[in-house]
Amino acid sequence: MRRSQAERDAITVEIGYALVSATVAAVAVIGVVVAGPAIAFSLSEGTESTLLVVGCTLAAVVFVVRLVTVLWRFNAREQTRRGQRSPDPSQPSQPGRTRPDS
């Protein structure tokens, strides 16, 4: 099934949002892990380089996790909206009914 222009636009916007929010989260991690202690304390070069490595590694992990999480949630919402998910068997098949077999 082909996607409409509105659906393609929504995907594009969501990818942009995921990239921007992941970048902001990664920069925040670097600011907290690397820049914060470097500004607040007088650190040796070895400590600063260790903080830089740890901060960049953690920022990369945060970036990927945020990116995947945002896109995964978008995909789940889209599948639910399009009715592609299998219905919950514990829910009644007809609105207003209280038992699935009624």
Describe the protein.
It is a single chain. By secondary structure, this protein is an all-alpha fold. The chain has one domain. The chain contains 2 helices and no strands. It is elongated, with a radius of gyration of 22 Å. 5% of the residues are buried.
- Average pLDDT score: 86
- Termini separation: 34 Å
pLDDT < 50 stretches: none
Number of domains: 1
H and E string: HH
Q: So how many helices?
A: 2
* Main sheet makeup: none
- Strand content is under 5%
Strand segment count: 0
Helix content: over 70%
Structural class assignment: mainly alpha
Rg (C-alpha, Å) = 22 Å
Which shape, going by the Cα principal axes?
A: elongated
Question: Summarize this, please?
Answer:
With 102 residues, the protein is mainly alpha-helical.
Topology:
Elements: H1 5-40, H2 45-82
Please tag this protein with its features.
mainly alpha, 2 helices, about 75% helix
